[in-house]
Structure formats: structure tokens, C-alpha cells
Specification:
Length: 118
Amino acid sequence: MVEPVVGAAEEVPEEDVPGAPGTKIRWLLSPGVGAPNFSMRLFSIAPGGRIPEHSHDWEHEIYVLSGRGVITISGRRHEVGPGTYVLIPPNLPHGYEQVGPEELRFLCLIPNRGAGGR
């Protein structure tokens, strides 16, 4: 049986994202805390920060909480801001750039097979 998990995002340790200048991640939900299917991550990208283009064989669901940015998917640039949601299908190259004065914060959900043992 899966047990409920309730927590405060700001109490989850923040980690640097390797190879992504100005980018931090908090693993809110993952297999390690009992999530059976999906992992939820909170990303923060500081002014001038970015996540370089990369791809995975799993989908991503994104929901922008605050700030502004550009998400590039297969070479196409999409401006995003608070309330924007995005589906990135598997195997498509994608990257993220923060724009403007405020950090870009977004939730990113992935299947647990992308959680890397978390």
C-alpha cells in the first residue's frame, strides 16, 4: 500500500544541477519517499542561468510557477511564464533559459525510471 506524503518544498534540500549554470533542483517526490510512478522536481534558474539542450527517453511535464523563460524543444523556442504548462515528449532535444530580473521556478514531473535511484 502506498502511504500519503505531505511536505514543504522549502524544507527539501536544494542541489546544484551539474552542467546547468545558475540552476538548482529540489526532489519533492520520488521513489525514495514512496512515490510509486512519478517524480516531482522543483527547479529554480537564477537570472542568466540555463539548462543546456539535452534529451531523455521519457516525457516531462512542466508547470511554470514564477519568472520568465524560454524552453527550446527540437529547435523551436517557446516563451513561458507563470501558469504555462508544457509537455516534452520522449527523445526530443530540449533546454531552458531564464530571462528577465526574476528567477524562473517550475515544477517538472517525470516517470520514476528517470529519477536515477532517488
